[in-house]
Batch of 2 targets.
Target 1
Amino acid sequence: MNPYFITANDFDAFVTKMSKDKKVIGPKAKKQKFVFGEIKSADHLRLDYDVTILPPKKVFTPTCQTLVTFDGDKFEGNVDNDGVILFGVHFYDIRGIDITDLLFRENNRDVNYLAKREASTIVGSNIQNVSKRSFWGSIGTSDSGPKGHDAFLTKMDGGYVLECLTQKGEDLVKFGNWSKASAAQVSEAEKINKDVMDKCSQKLSHSSSEIAEKVRNSFDNQELWSNLAEDCFSCGSCNTVCPTCYCFDVQDKWNLNQVSGMRNRYWDSCLTEDFAKVSLGAGSEENFRETRGERFRHRIMRKATYLNEKLGTPACVGCGRCSAACTADIADPVNVINKIMEV
Ligand code: SF4
Ligand code: SF4
């Protein structure tokens, strides 16, 4: 596949034409912050965003998703396979999508996620502004770069380079006045994306494998976990904003006739008190993670060890959203993990 170049003057016309022809979801301003939302013209698109409030996972797994509708003994699956162009995704969020792709593909393929995901086109974009709480520069390994995108856009003086990686990426070129990028433009794009990796103000102090081992060995240190979780409100915000958290709760909604209804799934959070509570029948129940410390430990174990060992990369991409979302300011993986490494 090929790298292309478009001038800054022609870029807006490209975005507007593409968004007239296809549904484009990209970063937009929302008051002082940014969100992924529908882009209907180039004026909406804010490629200079630092980080969005919610990650783009919400496009493929909405906060509430109807899986099945039923009426008596008849039921119908509700699969949304309308592809979108997810445009302007930073590399750490593409890594988040890579992780959810793997998890939703393994064993029983999750068609409700995969139908829309596989029909969609993902275009990455370089980070023009670095969010204060991010630490993506110090997480993962050299081969844990993003993989699931179709093209990657890099802004530079005078225009943009678009590196197309798949046919879906290549198909976007028809919407604009793109020409073949020169070798100098391609190497300038590489340099821009390499240089930004040193720009995070926060850093993890150890490698992912050292962290995985130490965090696992800290499992039984009850005092450590209850101290780390002392101020936790169990609100679940750190899960909600995380690009790699994917747990959901399934609930049936019955219509008033008590015959028909729908089965929905909703985002769920392992930090909330009820997450691991199960019924034992006869009015009794069991909560497998009753204390805040146990729930806090579970989140860090998932990010740093369990999924790290399974995927070969931490289930944290260093976006810093959880740090910014936590009212008590105790969720920041850099602070938590660096503290564990010192014990
Ligand atoms: S744990 Fe926090 S920093 Fe890591 S990916 Fe999730 S939200 Fe981002
Ligand atoms: S760590 Fe922070 S964001 Fe997460 S549940 Fe506790 S208080 Fe809420």
Target 2
Amino acid sequence: MREIELKVGRGVCRIFVEPGLLQRLHEILPAVLRVSDIRRPAGLVIDGNLRKWARPLEKVLRRVGLDPVTVIVPSGEPSKAMTRAETICRTFARARLERGSPIFGFGGGVVGDLAGFVASIYMRGVPFYPIPTTLLAQVDASIGGKTALNLPEGKNLVGTFQQPAAVFIDPLLLFSLPKREFVSGLAEVVKYGVIRDEDLFAFIEKNVQDVLKRGPRVLEEIVARCVRIKVDIVRRDERDRGRRAILNYGHTIGHAIERAGQYRRYLHGEAVSIGMEAEAVIAMQMRLASLEVVAAQNRLLRACGLPTRMERASRDAVLRAISHDKKVLDGRARFVLPERIGRVCTGVEVPEEVLLEALDTVTR
Ligand SMILES: NC(=O)c1ccc[n+]([C@@H]2O[C@H](COP(=O)([O-])OP(=O)(O)OC[C@H]3O[C@@H](n4cnc5c(N)ncnc54)[C@H](O)[C@@H]3O)[C@@H](O)[C@H]2O)c1
Ligand SMILES: [Zn+2]
């Protein structure tokens, strides 16, 4: 088992990564839960598609002396709503969850954001234990202590910072993930390679077939490496004031592509993949990166089964979305651009004509 620690302020978040970890959770939990947490009601929030896990998880929690109160939420983005958070808080209040009662979140980024948000506001904050079940949540969303809910006015407009007490990552859970969701999560994995870790990039290149077959050892390796990179970045910038920006590689254009497709056409990772392609092209046009960097990234994204081109109709909508984001950011749409594999620079302003040309390059 790999254990990675994220120390921030006075607290420590322990992150465990092991294929099969879920089967051993009853052994690991007693050492992780503080003694005062034992024999208390505990919250358990589960994604609707994973409801078959409710009973086994409740059994594990009972075995370690907790009294679980389970809430199953409909799968999908609409569950990240304030009304849903309030309903869960009220369920927990009726079940007499108290200060210090742990809350577990079993699901992808949606459940992680929702249950993490609830844990950060219920009784002014109780310990949160995510058990992420998607690749995106294992390598990204469950690490770093950001939570967010959507408003009708926009995505992720409400949120909190609260580090989880511990994160339990079992790559075997990824077996049941729909292929498209799994591949979409790989975009973030490739991103970590490009922004920070040439060896990770080479490792995925070399093992791409095993990765796509979801070989447990290969998954453990890449998930643990991505977690380490994110931990390292978050440790230096918990409140997202600057350094975390490098995690946004591919996302300036990626978010615009998601928005232009009304969040229906592309999954997050698919949009980020096209965004990374476009931003690498920008880096090349601005003479920050060589053609080889663009080519190597393109090869790997495609080998993973990720898109690097978008529909013709999208370009103008993407441009509009970027200029909208620009307004929100005080007129500063700053880019994170690669210099080589494993290294990026941040805060780059990109001339309009360069952006246009890059968007044309990634348009079918
Ligand atoms: N807080 C953060 O730092 C952070 C970072 C990145 C993304 N996010 C958020 O994460 C969300 C996206 O997360 P996601 O991509 O995990 O989506 P998701 O949680 O919606 O899960 C994707 C789909 O997979 C299903 N699923 C989950 N695990 C499964 C499994 N093991 N087997 C079968 N099906 C499974 C879910 O029911 C859902 O239909 C977005 O709301 C985004 O804003 C948050
Ligand atoms: Zn992302």
